[in-house]
Every structure is written in C-alpha cells, then in structure tokens.
Fold this sequence. Notes:
Helix content: 40-55%
Number of strands: 9
Amino acid sequence: MNASNPRIKAAFAKTAGRTALIPYVTAGEPSIAAAPLLMHALVKAGADIIELGVPFSDPMADGPVIQRAGDRAIKRGVGLRKVLEIVAQFRKQDTTTPVVLMGYANPIERMGQAEFVAAAAEAGVDGVLVVDYPPEEVVEFADQLGKALIDPIFLLAPTSTEERIKKVAKVARGYVYYVSLKGVTGAGNIDTVDVAQRLAEIRKHVSVPVGVGFGIRDADSAKRLGEHADAVVIGSKLIETMEQACVQAQQAGQESGQVDAAAIKAAADWLGTIHQALL
Length: 279
C-alpha cells in the first residue's frame, strides 16, 4: 500500500475538531493570469484544501454554473497542461495547501496516464479525482499516483452499494467525496439526516476522511453538514458568486484586471462566511 499525500494528511490533522473547508473552482477562473491569485485568496479566506476543476467539453456530473465556468475556461485555452501550469504558479508561494484536481478521464487518457502522473507530481498536485474512473478499473492508475504521493480520490453517492463502498475503500487515499444529492452539481436541497446515516454506513468500510459536496449553498447548510462530515466541498455557489461579481464589474465599465479583482474579492468574502460557520 502506498503512503498518503503528506499535505492532505497534514490538512486534516490541522482541522481535527472542526470541519475542513474545500472550495471547488474551475481552473482558469476568473482569468488564466488571475487563477493563482484566486487560489491564494481562498486560502486566506479559510480554505483547507482546494479542488481545481479541469475544464472538459462534456462534463456529465456538472450543473449549469460549473458548465458555464468550464466553457469560459476552454475558450481561454485552458486544457490539462495549462491547469498544471496554474498549480505550479500557485506552488511558488504556497507549499502547504493541498490542491486536488477534479475532472474527467479523457484529458488524462489523451496525455497518457504515466506522463500525467509525472507532470502532476512536478507541478505540486496532491490528489486526483476522476469522475468517470470507476475504482475497480483504475487499480494500476491509483498505484502510479500513490508512488508519486498523489492521492486517488473517489466519489460515493446516495445510490452507492455496500459492494461499491468496499471497492472504493480499497483504493481511496486522502479523503472520499460523498455526493449528497442525486443529480448534478448545484442541485436540490440536502436531507441532513439521510446524509448522516449514509456517512455512518460509509465509515464502516472507509478509513480516510469523508467530505460532503453538491448542494451546499450557504453557511447554514455547510454548518448542518459539518456536524457529520469531515469536510464540506463547495463549488457551484462559489463560482456563481464570482460570476455575478464579474457581470456587475463589467456593467460598471471596469477593465479586465478590475473585473478579476472584483470576482476574487467576492469569492473570498463569501467563502469567509462559510469558514466562520464551520468554526
């Protein structure tokens, strides 16, 4: 069994006694140049781990907000290699906050698994969550990641069977991401009691921390889930907050740098309210 990523392990050790905060942002938002600045601002606002979305043209699990962000990033020329450049840029100033890439198999397959693992390790990636890589089919890939001290992270859902939970438990490192709702990101209302029951079932088999995401849209829902989860993952509402700030800044006639700054400030301010709720 490969060792776990030290940065992710340290992040959860640091947050023992409270719920870890994991914001998700699409790589290349609000612009390529400003993407590392956004990541630094989120850390300052209370992020313990950052999930960085790799834009993809057919994102099956993403709701409309994250799809729009992905489309914007693709139009800016953000592919997998550019995402790794953004991580490397972030690492020049931050050598402690874990960065987890979240995306789909196609870009990794196009690059080649071995080349991707090497490039991700060099850039400073700590974990990889590939939505459409089932655990039973990626044992070799997970092993490659583990040898590079990159944690393979997997999704579990309300529909996950006990058998699937056991399969994930065999290969998961870092943490497991429990999808609290059926459907795509940003949808619906969360049944906290149901989530708590499902987390108890998952923990019978999974020894790594369990984060919960999908549908967390405010401090109240984050706090309620934080009473049961080791981490909360927030994406759609955070991206939507930046999106609205960009529109307002553009309508006010601000220049691109000012638009980026407005988006980053809005994101950090909003995430700060979530961080406070989790303390």
